[in-house]
Structure formats: structure tokens, C-alpha cells
Amino acid sequence: MNWARIDRDIACGITPTVQPFAGRYNSGSAPFPAGQSTPGLHLAELLDILRRRRKLILTIALCGTLLAAALALLIAPKYTAAAQIIVEPAPGVNGQSGSQTSDESLVDTQVKMMTSYDHLQRVVESLLADPKFTSRTNRSGKATHTANENTSPEPALADTERSWISEINHRLHIWTGTLFRNRNGAPLDIEDLQRRLNVTQEDRSRIITVRYTSRSPQEAAFVANRAVQLYVDGQEAQRSGYESRDLAQLRGQLSEARDNVARSAAAVQKAIREQAETPSGQAGEEARNADARLRMLERDAAASALNYARLQRRENEILNQRGATSPRLRVVSLAKPPTQPSSHNPLLFILPILIILLIGGSFVAVIMEQSDTGLRSERDIRDTLGIACAGLIPRLPDKENMKPHQHMLTEPFSAYTESIRSVVGQLWLTTPQRAPRAVLISSSVPGEGKTTAAVSIAVCAASLGRRVLLIDLDFKRPSVARELGNDTDKEIFDILLRNRPVAEVVTHIPDLGIDYLAMSASPLDALPSFVNQRLPLLLRQLSESYDSVVIDGPPLLGFVEARLLALLADKVVFVVKWGSTRREVAQNAINLLRKQDRLADDVDIPIAVLTQADLKVHASYRYGDAGEALATYENYYSRPNRF
Questions:
Q1: Within its chain, how far is the Cα of 263 from the centroid?
Q2: What are φ and ψ of residue 594, in 5° steps?
Q3: Could you say which of 155, 533, 566, 627 has the lowest number of CB atoms within 10 Å?
Q4: How far apart are CA 570 and CA 431, in angstroms?
Q5: 301-347 tens-digit pLDDT
Q6: Which are the contacts of 25, defined by CB distance < 8 A and separation ≥ 6?
Q7: How many helices (H) does the chain have, and how many strands (E)?
Q8: Domain boundaries defined on the chain
């Protein structure tokens, strides 16, 4: 990319054409053809992401699986006990049972009756009154709550009498009450029984199975047996009551019919005696009336006798067919406390949860990778910023109790030393005839590692026999003194404001072989030093006295002094923190340098340096650059050649 041409286009108001960023995973060197969209994430790139983020994926999967397993083990196992009864239909007139359809409807009727509210209420009341049941349950407290009590303490109000706030509060109480019900200390209520009790017909048979689920196997068997026994006993008692009531009514009718027969017989006998006592010479009309009355009494007596005989036969039928006119219920088997829980084994869900979390962790890894806007390679620098990258400076382990420039002196063959040597070689050794004198080290924002890079570059250049001057010109937060561990009361403002000689202010550090011009935190405004040309003249003078002048400047974003120093320097080294500096931030900082009016065709463009790189992570991206080589062949680069 031609830096000067881009600058001229911007100055002329022409939008420069910069190659779009093709993505971190485009391994090809050629840009995409015009009109062709950037390809998406391919299988090889996806596998590369999963391999690189495998620790994150495994951490999510393992931690999630362990948490799910712990929560599953905290859930108490549930036990289901089952009792069975059989419905024996009543025989018909000829002693045969009904059709199969009637049998199914009969069983369905019994199932519905066993789950009816009245029967469940009787079961709950019987259980709460039984001390054996209350002693088996784990809950404590008296059973002060009954099934037919209203759990809502507030009386129901009409919609017209309730405001919208009270209406919302009322609905909230309703719905939260379904989640958090208060039994007032009762170990069981009807809602619990309805939810845990299951009454079903076994296939198409006449057998009904009653199942109850509880956390206690003894309680499960106890409740299932009580529900079955109460229903069977209740049906027997109800049937006996119906038969006794019918028999009592029939016997009352028999007594009344017997009395009617006796009265009718007595009336007939009386009429016969009266007719016999009547004289034979009585008028014919009276004789005919007496005969008609006698025949009527005889008919009534015959009807009473017939009714009495019919009632007797009905009584005999009821006595002979007692219990045969309605279906009979018989207990097939009572429930026993189960030994194995009926709830699902939580250990069986570990593998599916692990697989699901692995898939979810993979999605998280891909999302994190795609949303990563950091710069990590020389190609990222070139495609995003349009400038070359001089090197990749690795991050030193935190366990080392020495500064990076001291590490260079003690470990001359380490990856850190090699990366600094690469930057120094590109600055002063690749083009000796155009080697810059004044080099500005800057960054887009603070915390990018520019001070550490400036000190290391200065020390490395001095080790090559060059006369190096390190100047701290970070006017807001000077930190070179802290990096060098050299506190001095002499600073650059002594030269600019107090006209002291340069030789008296510059500090020589013999251990590092460099000269150092310090700056302290000062409230003074540095901008007048640029206006009155004192600072430019000083830098020009120092550039003539030293082979290399390394300037630790302020960040480019937010500080006008950084852009003014870029005009005075022969070369700008733009520091980018590896994987941390966002692309937009770095682009905005570089755009500030593009707008400098002094840039011309013969002006060197800035170069970038990636700092604080994690070489192991960098090698996992497989860029194929020097950073990957330093991490992969660490033993080769860290050992000197032996002849």
C-alpha cells in the first residue's frame, strides 16, 4: 500500500480504496476478486476454532455437567407403590355377564369414581386421622388445613369494586399460590393426592391399578392401600345400604299388603254371613245388591292376595340375589413398599448433558472468536491499518522478577530478545543509508506497552554499538524512570525552560549503555514548547549528537502533542497490544497520522509492533509467522549455537 498516495487522496477529498479485512482465517495471500463476497466460516476454520478454544469448551462442559449432576443428586428420589383391584360385573338374568363394551364403560366409571373429589377427600381425612401415617411422613405440624377450606384469606370482590392495582395483586396471589402453596402444617392435602395418585385401567382388562408416588416408599404403599381399601369398603357399604333400604321398603309394603289381605278376607266372610242370615222371602232387589257387593269384595280380596304374593316373590328374589345385581370390587394385591425408586436415575442424564454442553460451548467459542476485534498477527496489521508490522514482542512470564530490558541482557537468546532485535534491525540495519535518527514510540491509547518497548529498543540498539538517547516525552504520565528504576531530579524542562546545558541534564546509565533524558509529572503545558520551536530545535540538536534518539511519546488518541511529535520524528513505531487493541481504535489512531500535512512521497510510513503477545496462544492460530516459529521451536531459538 502506498502511504503517500493515500494521504494525497485524503487531502484531495478522494475516498481511498483500502483492501477490506478478509478475516483472521483467510490463509491465502491474494485478495478476493472484485464482486466476490468474503467467504464464510469453512469446516477447517471451524475445526481450528474448536481446537484453539478447546480449554474453554471443556471447562464449560465439565463445570456445567458437574453442576447439573450436583443439582440432580440434591433432588430426592421418588418411589411409586401400586395396588390392584378387579371389577367383577354382576351376572345378567341368565347368569351371564354383559358385553365387552359395557365392561369397559363399567371399569371407566370405577376409575372416575376413584379419582373423584369426594373419594379423595375421604382418603385425606382418613390419612390425617391415622397416627401411623403422620408418623411416617417427614413433615411436622398439626393438620389444621382441610380440603374444603378456602386458602385465600381475602374475600372475593367483584370486578367493579377492585382497582387495577388490587386486581393485579389478586392475580399475583392466585398464580404464586399455585407455585407456593401453604398447607398450614398438614402433611397431605387433596391437591397433593390428585397430583401423586394415578388410577389407570390395565390394558383392556377389568383390573384397575392405583399408584401413588412419594419420597418415602412406606408412605407410597400406605397411601395406595388406604385409597384402595376405602374405595372397596365404601362401595360394599354403599351397596349393602342400598339393598337394606330396598328390603326395608319392601317389607313395609308386605306388612301393608298382609293387612289388606286380612281385611279383605274378613269383609268377604262378613258379607257371606250377612247374606246367609237374610230371609229367603226378601225382595229380589236387595238380594241382587248383596250378591254384587259380595262379588266386589271377593275381587278385592283376590287382588290383595295377588299383590301380597308378588311382594313375597320380590322379597325372595332380593334375599336370593343379594349382591348379584351390582358389580363387585375385589382387591387383587395390596401395595408393598418399593425397593427401587421410580424417578429417573440422574446419572443417566450426565452423558446427554455433557454432549449438549459441548455443543453449547462450541457455539460460545465460535461467537467469541467471531466477535474478537483484536489484532493478533502481521497480516491483521497490514489488512486493517495498511502498514507493515516490524515484529511480535512476546509477554514475559509474571514469575520473572526483572524488567524486560534486564531480561534481554541476561537471556540474549530468548524469544523476547529476538523479537526486539527484529524491530531494531528493521529500523536501523535494513536501510543504513536511510536509517532514522529520531524514532517516536507511540500507541493509540495508554496501557499498550509502549514504554517497555521503547526502553527495550533503546537498550538493544545500544548493544549494537550505537550511541542511543532515550527521551521520555509522555507529558501526561511519564513512566520511563519507573521502567529504568532510575530516579533523577533532572528533566527535559530544565533545558526548555531554564536553559540548562544538555550535558548537565542527560543521565548516562552505564549498565545499559544508553543516555536518558527524563521527565517528571508536571502541570506545565508542553504545547508552548512546540509553538516557540524550543522542543523541535532540541530534538534536531540531539539527533545530530546521537546515532539514535528513541522518544517515548504520549498516545495518539486524545493528545495533540503526540501528533506534533510525529511531525518531528523520522520514524513512528506504532505499538499495538496483541489481542487487546480494537481495530477501530487502532484505525482511528493511524488516520490521525495520515492527515499530517508534512507527509510526502519520500517520507517513511509508520511501522507497527505487536506487544505482550502470548506465544502459545498465538501459535494456536497457525499464522505461520515468526511468532509461531518462536513458540513452536522454543528450544532451538533459546540456545546459542555451539561449534
A1: 92
A2: -65, -30
A3: 155
A4: 13
A5: 888 888 888 888 877 776 776 555 567 788 889 999 998 888 888 88
A6: 41, 42, 45, 48
A7: 25, 12
A8: 56-75+347-368, 79-146+166-242, 249-324, 375-388+422-637
